[in-house]
Amino acid sequence: MQVHKPEPQVPRTHVETIDNTSFLSKPSPYAFTPTNFSILVKRVDRYKKKMKLFIEHLGLFIDMDISVALDPYNDIHARIDSMES
Q1: Which pLDDT score, from 0 to 100, does residue 36 have?
Q2: Where along the chain do its domains lie?
Q3: CA dihedral 52, 37, 31, 28 (to 10 degrees)
Q4: pLDDT score recorded for residue 15
């Protein structure tokens, strides 16, 4: 039989706002430690790589599909002139 251990109580910080109201806030579970900072840096690098790939694929999509969709309008002036005459 497992015994449930209660989580330790984390002290709250008293915060005052601009309009002089106050509340108790929970401290962040992520302390600013070298370990947490290195994890954050790795995570940011991973998301930068994902964003770069997304932007490259989006650029290819725009170049191919939008140019095909706008192809009938490339020579619109010549077509208007031919319709007027």
Answers
A1: 83
A2: 50-85
A3: -10
A4: 60
How many CB atoms neighbour CB 36 within 10 A?
13
Side chain identity, residue 28 = S
Residues 67 and 63: their CA atoms lie apart, in Å, by: 6
Please give the torsion angle defined by the CA atoms of residues 35, 38, 40 and 45, in that order, rounded to the nearest 10 degrees. -160
Q: What is the number of residues in the chain? A: 85
- Cα–Cα distance measured from residue 40 to residue 29, given in angstroms and rounded to the nearest whole number: 14
Q: What is the mean pLDDT of residues 6-19?
A: 58
Interval 37-74: pLDDT, tens: 888 899 999 999 999 999 988 888 888 877 778 887 77
CA geometry: angle 34, 37, 41, nearest 5 deg: 135
